[in-house]
Amino acid sequence: MSQPAVSDGTNIKGRRRRARWKRLNFFVGLAIVLTVAGTAIVSFFWTPFDPTQIDATSPLLGVMEDGHILGTDQFGRDLFSQIMVGAQTALFVGILAVAIAVAVGIPIGAFAAAKRGLAEDAVMRTSDVIYAFPPVLLAILLVAALGAGTGSAMIAIGIAYVPIIARVTRGAALTVFQLDFVTAARSYGRGDVFIAVRHVLPNIASVLIVQVTVLFALAILAEAALSFLGIGTQPPTPSWGRSLRDAQTFLQVSPRLAIWPGLAIAFTVLGFNLLGDGIRDALDPRLEASRS
Amino acid sequence: MYVLRRFGVFAVSVFVSSLLVFMVMSILPGDPAQLMLGTQATPEALEELRRALGLNRPLITQYFDWLASALRGDFGVSPFSGQEIGPQIVERLKVTIPLALMAVSMTILVAFPLGVFAASRHRKVGDAVVSVGSQVGLAIPAFWAGLILVTVFAVNLQWFSAGGFPGWDVSVTESLKALFLPAVSLAIVQAAIITRFVRSAVLDTMRNDYIRSARSKGLTKWAALWKHGLRNAAIPVLTILGLQFAALLAGTVVIESVFVLPGLGSMLLQGITRRDLPLVQGGAFTIAVLILAVNLAVDLMYRVIDPRVAEQ
Amino acid sequence: MTTPLIEVEGLTVTAGLNVLVDDVAFTLESGSRTGIIGESGSGKTMTALAIMGLLPDGLTATGSVRLRGEELLGQDDKELVTQRGNSMSMIFQEPLAALNPVMRIGRQIAEPLLIHREISRAEAFLIAINLLESVGIDDPERRAKAFPHELSGGQRQRALIAMALANGPALVIADEPTTALDVTVQAQVLGVLRDQVVARDTALILITHDLPVVASVADSVIVLRDGAIVESGPTQEVFQTPSDLYTRQLVDAVPPLSRSVTVIPKHVEPQIDGEPIVEMTDIRRTYRLRKRNLADPAPLIHALDGVTIDVLRGETLGIVGESGSGKTTLARIIMGLDTPTSGVVVVDGIPLDSKQNLRRVRDVAQMVFQDPMGSLDPRMLVEDVVAEPLRSLRVGGDHRKRVAELLDAVSLPSDAVHRYPHEFSGGQRQRIAIARALAPGPRLLIADEPVSALDMSVQTVTLDLLDELKQEFSLTMVFISHDLSVIHEISDRVVVLEKGRVVESGSAGSVFSQPKEQYTKDLLAAIPRLDGSFLDKGFVA
């Protein structure tokens, strides 16, 4: 980033300040995501208490009471341990849902961009209609059909996000497919598949990475919503959404119970969103020229 | 021609979505009768229910029968409650549509001024504050916002009731009041999304050559934005508003459950937990048609805003 | 002594540590016409924007800009708006982008009137219609009610001129006003611009990279390089006896055809052995557009409408045409990238009628594209870019060595292989693209506007390189361009296309010196000449 392009029309000082601000997005996001991931990993081996251990003698303890960092719920289960293990569920669902969406959506989108005409129309019309459905609603319907549970929530969320990935892929790929280097590749005999994989995908990777990061956040929100409605993760597996569902019943008695799991969700989602923004800014095509 | 084609697309989309709703519920693994009666059901009872639901006919026949009556507003009878589903949906829409409209209005009222403000303070403190605020708003799950709002305004301050819906016939003001907190919960995320979008749409618009040429005619930067920029910026914003309306309808499913509102969303959820197949199909299809109708309206609005649309 | 209209002193525009305009000074009298010329990055646009007070955020201007003695630099937006659109106005390069897409033309032209004068909307609209008429727009009442996308490029640029002239400003700055236009339209628009500023005694600053354009409109010229003035003076004096080396280079880079109508070509009649490498017979290519309404059939676009062309072995065939002439479609059809609706194409004895044969054509023909940014995959190292065709077409041998030879042939340093395309200048990127096209050893090179995106001086060098390579690799070349001067420079034979039809063809010498068809004559007459002769010839209707 030594020499800004002359035509860019911004001064260096502002540029540096903005670059720093953008990097701040990225690093704060990364720090949050790593914290959540770290918590999830640690919780496999150690939590302060057994998160599912019911202890009738100490229900609804306050913060830092009796060694319970965030207190206990109505059954005397340690809140902090539950939230730690909840990170596992959130990330697990996020990873698999996004993996499903990416594995199905990218080929569909790339195909639709490469093959103009009827095939494209068919694929995109269908995906347009599915796209009109909000993913959460679609996931709710799919879960209804598949039966409640973490697994079906994951699959449902993944399928619901396929059209999003497909559309983003197609949109970005269409632009690249129209560039002359693709025509050049055709003119020296490369086929659609080679062009899609070797020329188009690397050039839309940054767009997709950003989209995937954002979808991760959306998947975590969706899982929380499904579990909150009681059709996602089932007890005793701890889940942030599930904890909020339980907290709702005790809102009058102990509103505190509703705070921590919600904060955990918001914190994680914020992390992924910031990371997505940070990656996008880092890959901003206007800054591309100064990267080498 | 554009209008005609757009209505055509609408009709096709309604058809595809009906197919989708029907297929998701019918073809995916699991026998609806079994799901409804549970694992303990006797084979005779299952057979009985299947016949009652018409499940032993070919799927195609089932689908077209269902579609034909659905288009007339007849979604059959709930096997669970024995009630007609159609009238029930109408009743529920009287809660959900006002709720959604209220949330959309709040979203627009907050997001447009904030987005334009942030764009006008580009790279200054005001912009940064709005950016951080919208980033946080984006991360808050609507149902959690609902819980917090209930805790603060219903449990502690007791300004609102924690949930329930008196009904429009009982009291219009009380009904509106009952929808207020749910609408706020829905609007928080939406406002965050739309604010960010308005901001970047305005910034993009300001980079256009015609803004520069408007300024060269003697308009100040902000007069140029006002007279030339906003209408152009409105085009992408309208798209996203349409899409977000769909997200908002999905949000009602969750929010109606938080606030115990008798809307379409809570009906759908009830249908799902009780395995009430016709109820879920009816509810989902209604929501789909609503969403498609909003998209249609948005596309037709383009024509008013953007003269280029008719040419495409 | 009267105060000059514009006095610029020590004008410096900086972006942080970067100096974009460096201590520029000049004086303009009212009614004068001045050209500011320079290649990309010379700071010519920034100078104009600094005068208008429209520099992008983050750029700062220092020095002095006085309009009739009044200092403009340092005035804020609110003060400057009383001048902008009133005593000075600006015309921008890309007319479609410079017009608000959702506002009717008439209202946009009326806008400066409404801003600066106390008149009613109806009055302003009437004046707008008069203005449209004065810039030569037919049926101005109807056009005034149109949206920008409903007008042609030339009409839009005329509308922008009308807008700039609305309040009878003392100064109009036109930034590359005709660069995006076809040559015949350019001639008309330049004529209108010149006639209107003369008639209104308005001073004009014309900013362009194109010397002949300046020569046809401006009476004095300022040459900018890297933000600083290298030379200035009366236009013909500067162009005929440039005192600065850089100006001389710019003048030398002007192709012969653009120098004067009287100087006619260097061309020696080519020796062509007569055997065709490409035979195209009665090629048609139609595209179907979407229906506008139910009753009418879907409109058809005839991109190519019965074209018969032979390309002879060893020649350079120039194909020239304005936008919409079908020249790019033609290139794509020879390459087998597009299939004609009807007609027969035979390339090197291979009829392009099956997928298999299309593949065989790749061994014979390769292509160079217009935009050197878009034609190279930004994520690939130069080595891979050039080696790609070798791998794809399974050319044997040591690829690395071959790439090194090719880069050497196009005069790029050997360390270029380990760099990415964006690290090179436009001209260098075009060389990489040429090396890639030559890699599989084609016998036929299709060059589609290969120099149009390059600066004038780079154009000349690139054309020379193409000519050399053609000899070295014994190529046949099809050279496609909208620019007659470039075609004239490089071609042995010329085909003139108009709206998908061949208007005229023949040896370069005959087509350029004795054009038979009126269309060709019009094209030639429309070329701005360095001696300023074209507008005086009364081309403008």
Overview of this protein structure:
The complex is a heterotrimer of chains A (292), B (312) and C (541). With 292 residues, chain A is mainly alpha-helical. Chain A has helices at 12-45, 79-114, 118-132, 135-146, 150-177, 180-187, 192-228, 240-249, 259-282, 285-288. Chain B is globular, with a radius of gyration of 23 Å. Chain B is built from twelve helices and no strands. By secondary structure, chain C is an alpha/beta fold. The chains are: A mainly alpha (292), B mainly alpha (312), C alpha/beta (541). Chains A and B meet through helix 1, helix 3, helix 4, helix 7 and helix 8 of A and helix 1, helix 6, helix 7, helix 10 and helix 11 of B.
Order of helices and strands of chain B: HHHHHHHHHHHH
The helical percent of chain A reads: over 70%
- Per CATH, what is the topology of chain A? MetI-like fold
Average residue-wise pLDDT of chain B = 83
Indicate the CATH class of chain A. Answer: Mainly Alpha
Main sheet specs of chain A: none
Query: What's the architecture of the largest domain in chain B in CATH terms?
Result: Orthogonal Bundle
Poorly predicted parts of chain B: none
* Terminus-to-terminus distance of chain A: 9 Å
Helices and strands, with pairings:
The complex is a heterotrimer of chains A (292), B (312) and C (541).
Chain A: H1 12-45, H2 79-114, H3 118-132, H4 135-146, H5 150-177, H6 180-187, H7 192-228, H8 240-249, H9 259-282, H10 285-288
Helix pairs in contact in A: 1-2, 1-9, 2-3, 2-5, 2-7, 3-5, 4-5, 5-7, 6-7, 7-8, 7-9, 8-9
Chain B: H1 2-26, H2 32-37, H3 43-53, H4 59-71, H5 85-120, H6 125-139, H7 142-156, H8 172-206, H9 209-216, H10 221-258, H11 264-274, H12 277-305
Chain C: E1 6-15, E2 18-28, E3 33-37, H1 44-52, E4 60-67, E5 70-71, H2 77-80, E6 88-91, H3 95-98, H4 105-116, H5 121-134, H6 140-144, H7 153-165, E7 171-175, H8 183-200, E8 203-208, H9 211-217, E9 220-225, E10 228-234, H10 235-240, H11 245-253, E11 276-288, E12 300-312, E13 316-320, H12 327-334, E14 342-347, E15 350-351, H13 355-364, E16 365-368, H14 382-392, H15 399-409, H16 426-438, E17 444-448, H17 456-472, E18 476-481, H18 484-490, E19 493-498, E20 501-507, H19 508-513, H20 518-526, H21 533-536
Parallel strand pairs in C: 3-8, 3-9, 6-7, 7-8, 13-18, 13-19, 16-17, 17-18
Antiparallel strand pairs in C: 1-2, 1-4, 4-5, 9-10, 11-12, 11-14, 14-15, 19-20
